[in-house]
Write a structure and sequence with these properties.
Layout: H1 16-32, E1 36-37, H2 49-58, E2 60-63, H3 69-85, E3 111-114, H4 126-129, E4 148-153, H5 160-166, H6 169-179, E5 184-193, E6 201-204, E7 223-228, E8 238-240, H7 252-259, E9 268-269, E10 277-281, E11 286-288, E12 297-305, H8 307-310, E13 314-315, E14 323-324, H9 327-347, H10 368-373
Helix pairs in contact: 3-5, 5-9
């Protein structure tokens, strides 16, 4: 049975047959694009030109089999611990066991809540109004909770397993190949879209800073890696409009109006197995539907920028307070890369750690001092 034939766990109403067909057609498009396979480098250490071409053409690529079974087990253990430590409701100080809940005492934004199967941002002014169209909201089960957490921001401070994924040597080598050896971090999150509960994310493009720049190109706003714990299907995963990252700022409302539905006809889903890691250009039009499937989608999300796209830029206002991203702020935020590399070295000593060029003059050890220092690190996110 293909992933798109997974039975829905929620009531999609009269839209169900159309959504099922859309998922099947989308999966067929995804598997025909030629943008999936293992990470490959040339003999001289360059990212394989076929990968570069497919990523540039499509705006996303699925790297298969990146995370090994023991790493997936580590991520799952942390994910289950995070789920157990969530507040019993929005604003609560304790979890279901009466312990201090995850995120309590932190200054940075960590937990994003939504009604089950809702679209919490579509058609609103959230994030500079980049979600202009509201997605269809299926009916949740009668016994569903009032709200669920669907996104954990600043995730590296709550999960060493996620931190170690951030330090994966092959993924960081891909980042260096695409954004240059002095690439810088953007932000990190853990998407937790429960079966029959997970909220949708309305169609959008991530960037906002450089759209009117004469130097705008397809890489101006960076990219995100998305590591899949359980895999993802058309019914619960991200959808991308191939090639849209090369066309500048899209009129998403017009695209939906022309289609007569939020099921954009050219969009293509990420179809991933456990341990696959997708890379998606932040300028691509992308979004996801409410998770009406019977499967969890848990995604370790982390992004990177070119240094020149960030240095001296007035950022913030979406991910954190407005600020000018000077060299000292970038260096402070990039400590996470060093911590991640060292944390991974300690867990997987058989690997050759990635050598991050800006840290050539000194290491960033992952130790007790670093565990204290990482608290609220996401206040320094480099959002453009």
């Amino acid at each position: 049975m293909s992933r798109s034939q997974t039975a829905f766990a929620a009531d999609y109403g009269v839209e169900e047959d159309a959504m099922r067909a859309y998922c099947a057609e989308g999966e067929a498009r995804a598997l025909a694009l030629g943008n999936r396979g293992p990470i490959r480098f040339t003999a001289s250490g360059e990212l394989d030109p076929e990968i570069c071409e497919a990523y540039s053409r499509c705006g996303f690529y699925v790297f298969t089999g990146v995370l090994r079974p023991e790493e997936l087990a580590d991520i799952e253990a942390d994910f289950l611990d995070i789920q157990a430590r969530l507040p019993v409701r929005r604003g609560a100080q304790v979890d279901a066991r009466g312990r201090t809940a995850l995120g309590v005492g932190h200054k940075g934004l960590n937990l994003m809540w939504a009604r089950p199967l809702s679209d919490p941002v579509g058609g609103t002014k959230a994030a500079r109004g980049r979600y202009p169209v509201k997605m269809f909201e299926p009916a949740a089960a009668q016994d569903a909770p009032d709200e669920v957490v669907y996104l954990l921001l600043g995730s590296l401070q709550f999960s060493e397993a996620c931190l170690r994924v951030h330090g994966h040597p092959q993924l960081l080598a891909v980042a260096a190949a695409i954004n240059g050896p002095d690439f810088v971090p953007f932000n990190e999150a853990l998407w937790m879209k429960g079966p029959g509960l997970g909220a949708s994310v309305a169609w959008h493009q991530d960037g906002w800073t450089h759209w009117d720049s004469p130097e705008l190109d397809e890489g101006s706003h960076g990219f995100n890696f998305m590591a899949q714990l359980y895999g993802c299907s058309p019914a619960n995963g991200l959808w991308v409009v191939p090639g849209s990252h090369r066309k500048g700022k899209a009129d998403i409302a017009a695209l939906v109006a022309a289609a007569g539905t939020e099921r954009l006809p050219e969009a293509t889903p990420l179809v991933c197995a456990p341990g696959d890691v997708a890379i998606t250009n932040r300028q691509a039009v992308h979004g996801s539907f409410a998770n009406t499937s019977r499967d969890w989608r848990v995604t370790v999300n982390f992004g990177f920028h070119r240094r020149r796209s960030v240095l001296g830029v007035a950022g913030g206002g979406v991910h954190n307070a407005p600020a000018i991203y000077d060299a000292s702020r970038i260096a402070a935020r990039a400590r996470v890369i060093g911590w991640a590399v060292d944390a991974r070295r300690q867990r997987f000593p058989d690997e050759t750690p990635f050598a991050y060029a800006p840290h050539a003059g000194g290491a960033c050890p992952w130790d007790d001092a670093a565990r204290d220092a990482i608290k609220d690190y996401n206040l320094l996110d480099l959002g453009i």
